[in-house]
Amino acid sequence: MNDLEILNSIRNLISSVSDASSLLAEAVNLLRRERPHYHWVGVYLLQGEELVLGPYVGKPTVHTRIPLNQGICGAAASTGQTLIVDDVNADPRYLACSLETRSEIVVPIQHLGRVLGEIDIDSDQPAAFTPHDRELLEAVAALLAERI
Ligand code: SME
What is the gyration radius of the CA atoms in the chain, in angstroms? Predict the structure, then answer.
């Protein structure tokens, strides 16, 4: 699928899937399936001062709750800015999820300027995420923000 087809599929899910958790599960599965360099795809939801892991696809992670002042996940949520890390092992903020992971993108999900959560994606390839991935995932996050 090209980016537009992915966004249309997410729009269809938004109108057909009734609960937010199933919608997020379908969305992470779609991204994992359609973009082979996305090896781990998950959504964290902000609860108070912590990010709580929601639906994900990939290996289980120990980081099911991440305080806002920790990790690449915490940095993206606290600034409301997308973060792309080309080499996770060179970033002191990085909380390791899997030894194979080499790069990561974290895209905040925001509504009316308020961070609700984020999309977190790991790749086993170094520098796997381009401005093109960022554009796609920011558009996906904007769609999901309507429903979580
Ligand atoms: N790497 C993230 C933690 C989440 S796991 O990758 C699933 C971070 O540094 O915040």
Answer: 14
Locus of tokens 């690449």:
72
- Nearest-CA residue for atom 3 of ligand 1: 95
| Substitution site in 39, 59, 66 for ligand 1 pocket (most atoms within 8 Å of beta carbon) | 66
Q: How far apart are CA 19 and CA 102, in angstroms?
A: 33
pLDDT, tens digit, 9 for 90 and up, residues 66-112? 999 999 999 999 999 999 999 999 999 999 989 999 999 999 999 99
Percent of the chain with pLDDT over 90: 97
Distance 73 CA to ligand 1 centre (A): 6
Q: Does the beta carbon of 26 lie inside 6 Å of ligand 1? A: no
Q: Quick one: CA torsion of 61, 63, 64, 68, rounded to 10 degrees? A: -150
